[in-house]
């Protein structure tokens, strides 16, 4: 997971929106500024004030370049992003392991919000995701289907870990999966997505 996370997040450029930032686990994996482009501004969103405080503490210890503006915003990624930020505002939008805690309908709403706030691919916009997914191994997939609901209720932090994120992306109008990688028998996947 760490290698997949680092590889994917190294592709973030420009003004980045990260939803479901949690404790800020991803922040040290971004490449900031420099001649190769990198991240020039970072907007970190979570629905929890407690998580945002954890992320704020982590960011304060990183020693980021003063030219990189970092903003912490409390918002619900399933409904607030477009109203708060407007359409076509971010060069890169990132989400790692948050769709599963939104449930299937919430995840679909979130993907629509992400699509609307990211710039088009013609303007260099992209969405980077790493998500729990239904396994490509038939036996593991069946096990996930049988246990996902109970696991999410009993200590799984609400995560529905058998979502078919690939299908959700295919059915989100205006999004196109550029690259998809499967890890750990398909238990999680990374996606590079653009807006047509």
UniProtKB/TrEMBL annotation:
Residues 16-120 form the Methyltransferase domain. It holds the Pfam family Methyltransf_25. InterPro entries: Methyltransf_25, Methyltransf_Superfamily, SAM-dependent_MTases_sf. GO terms for molecular function: methyltransferase activity. This is Methyltransferase domain-containing protein.
């Amino acid at each position: 997971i760490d290698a997949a996370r680092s590889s994917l997040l190294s592709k973030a450029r420009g003004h980045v929106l990260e939803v479901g930032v949690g404790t800020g686990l991803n922040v040290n994996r971004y490449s900031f500024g420099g001649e190769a482009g990198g991240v020039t501004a970072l907007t970190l969103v979570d629905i929890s004030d407690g998580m945002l405080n954890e992320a704020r503490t982590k960011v304060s210890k990183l020693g980021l370049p003063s030219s990189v503006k970092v903003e912490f915003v409390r918002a619900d990624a399933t409904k607030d992003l477009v109203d708060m930020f407007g359409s076509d505002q971010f060069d890169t939008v990132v989400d790692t392991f948050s769709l599963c805690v939104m449930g299937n309908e919430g995840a679909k709403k979130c993907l629509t919000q992400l699509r609307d706030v990211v710039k088009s691919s013609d303007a260099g916009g992209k969405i980077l995701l790493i998500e729990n997914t239904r396994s490509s191994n038939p036996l593991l997939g069946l096990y996930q289907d049988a246990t996902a609901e109970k696991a999410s209720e009993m200590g799984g932090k609400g995560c529905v870990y058998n979502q078919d994120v690939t299908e959700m992306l295919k059915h989100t109008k205006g999004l196109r999966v550029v690259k998809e990688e499967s890890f750990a028998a398909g238990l999680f996947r990374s996606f590079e997505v653009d807006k047509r």
